[in-house]
């Protein structure tokens, strides 16, 4: 029964994670459609300080869609391992890219299509090899995990690194180095996911009838989540404001997911139940998603399609025979000149002399 219950929870969490990506990816499209409609009406745009979008129903639909996606993502951590839920967040980028090509007439080039395919393959691989057993099922168990020496050391290092980057590295290099603010968001994000996981367990216990309001851990996790998310939003906005979004998004995904996977391995011990093949499969799926996200973002402004590749190949095929034809023509002219010189020598010189010269010419030509 316990194993059946664990598989049941696993598939519930998987469904919530996928639906979260669909809602969040769709929310960007709805918001964008609403803003474009306002721009056509001549209203002051949001980037110029206008707030006309508050009267646009499409924008509100996008906001509600994003809220539903975040709620589904929050609930997914209560049922499925963080090793599975966090990397599947990349699907929201994929959904947004695909929907924008249909509803916003934004062109998805060949690199983007390959990136979408790789993201799907990587996500499928992670789903197949992700741990299907949940290690923490109650707040009491969560308390024991939080005071574990391994996680305590990890959390201490994360806080120290974040403080150093915030107060020392950030003021000096934050405006020029893209990794500074992203590192702050990523390492703090590992702690925020831990808080979300704990709160999800608390909600499950509350639904089961247990009194979690009096639990100090529930309030500590809630305050910790608010602090972590506020810090993440602040420094992620700084990174997006200074640097190109096509660079910030894939780098943040890689750093954030790596931090969460590390935290999950230390705190939840989700990797302890996995065999070597599942660990390799999970990491391979993760790296495949990274490559897909990189292709989707890094080359989105490059105009590459199957048609342009076909034209380029035909040009190469035309140039190749032409080069061969020029080479053979030059060789023919060279041999023809040598033959003419040889005939002249045969008419002017003695027989022995002409033979020796011909042999010398043949030898020199062989040497070359």
TrEMBL record:
Compartments reported by the entry: Membrane
Any one Pfam family match given in the protein's UniProt record, by short name: Mg_trans_NIPA
Stretches assigned to coiled coil: none
Keyword tRNA processing: no
Membrane topology, as annotated: Multi-pass membrane protein
Transmembrane segments: 12-30, 57-79, 85-105, 151-171, 178-203, 215-235, 247-267, 279-299
GO molecular function, one term: magnesium ion transmembrane transporter activity
Keywords: Membrane, Transmembrane, Transmembrane helix
GO terms for cellular component: membrane
Keyword match Membrane: yes
PANTHER family, alphabetized: MAGNESIUM TRANSPORTER NIPA2, PTHR12570
Annotated family: Belongs to the NIPA family.
Listed name of the protein: NIPA magnesium transporter 2
Gene assigned in the entry: NIPA2
